[in-house]
Amino acid sequence: PSWLGQEKDVIDEIVQEAICRTFERVRKAEREGAEPVKSKECLCKTIARHYFIDLIRKDKRIVHLTQINSASSDEYVIVDDVADPTEEVLNEMFRASLFDRLAPEIMNFPKKQSRALLVDLAKHSHFDGPLTPLQRALLQYGVHLQDYQGSRPASALERSRHAALLSLAYRRVAKLDSMKQYI
């Protein structure tokens, strides 16, 4: 595939985009009275899957070998290996701007909500590669997202409290004035 050796970067992009779109959907539900999101995790996974499919469709550089009379439907051929650098730069700038505004807001959340949100973000992040825009933004405030990795609660009661705090934190993010321009 054209992204051979860049799998982690593609995964990071998909995860961050899915999180951003999930925030947008939650905010839209609260703002416009649409049906509330029942499972943010399921919604985020669905958005990530659809975003991945959209990336492949948009790319138009990948053609199924079956389209050129190959026996295997799971193989691909790269037609054109040139991506649009302008779009990549704009996406990176958008994410950097979003997370630069979000990071200080998270630091102002109540301590337990902030921790629940950081634990959830760490759960969905990868740390073996260059820093993501989210990691860079949090690092400016002394937060190492990797420190929150794997620190999920053990007991059922603690998990329930964590889930409630996380829901409140995501709702708080969706209502932030600084996030309105991104939604």
Describe this structure in words.
It is a single chain. With 183 residues, the chain is mostly helical. It has one domain. The chain is 60% helix and 3% strand. The chain is built from six helices and two strands; from the N terminus they run ααββαααα. It has helices at residues 7-32, 40-59, 85-108, 111-123, 133-139, 156-175; strands at 62-64, 76-78. The protein has a two-stranded antiparallel ribbon.
Key structural traits:
mainly alpha, globular
Task: Give the arrangement of secondary structure elements.
Elements (H helix, E strand, L loop, with lengths): L6 H26 L7 H20 L2 E3 L11 E3 L6 H24 L2 H13 L9 H7 L16 H20 L8
Computed Rg: 18 Å
Q: What's the multimeric state?
A: single chain
Low-confidence segments, given as residue ranges, are: 64-73, 76-82
Rounded mean pLDDT is 79
Distance between the termini: 33 Å
Number of domains: 1
Q: Biggest sheet, strands in spatial order?
A: 1-2
Order of helices and strands: HHEEHHHH
Helix content: 55-70%
Percent strand: under 5%
Question: Which term fits the overall shape?
Answer: globular
What's this entry about, in short?
The protein has 183 residues and is mainly alpha-helical. The chain is 60% helix and 3% strand.
